[in-house]
Amino acid sequence: MTEVQPRCGDFGLAKIGGLAGAFVNFGQWFVGDFAPVQHALVYVGDGMVVQAMPSGAELIRLEDASPVVKWSTGLVPLGDGEREVICREAKSLVGTPYSFLDYVSIALERFGFRSKLFRDIIESSDRLICSQLVVEAYSRAGVDLFGAGKFPGDYTPGDLYNLLKNLESADV
After folding, report:
1. Largest Cα–Cα distance of the chain, in whole Å?
2. How far is residue 172 CA from its own chain's centroid?
3. Alpha helix (H) ranges present in 1-100?
4. pLDDT in tens, 74-83
5. CATH of the domain at 24
């Protein structure tokens, strides 16, 4: 099996261990989108990725990130212009604070308990978890990964994993 070489603008999904990985695993299971990944990041070229972290979104070397187990490469069709904007926008999100409250918001949404007021608070917080960073960078480039109708803050790494899984099965 050959290793996938990501292109600028591709997103990757990774497994993370420890308490953080267990927390994300439980959360994804709890909201019904359990997946074998707990983290998402955007490849921005030159061996660098942008990822949301509890200390804030960061630009780091790919080799220093959690090992990616699945890339969007070849699955999400992107033009060169879209790739350029995704990379630029992902880099512009460096420093964006993290929000553990967004996990609560996602759980409330999945079980139909979230009010418009709570959603408005989450939307205006300017905080992102890793999967939201990916969706936001793509959205700013005009690429809607999931189609209309869902709040951009309601995505987990499991949602991104299931998207790639569905795209793979559609190619078969």
Report:
1. 49
2. 25
3. 18-30, 80-92
4. 999 999 999 9
5. 3.90.1720
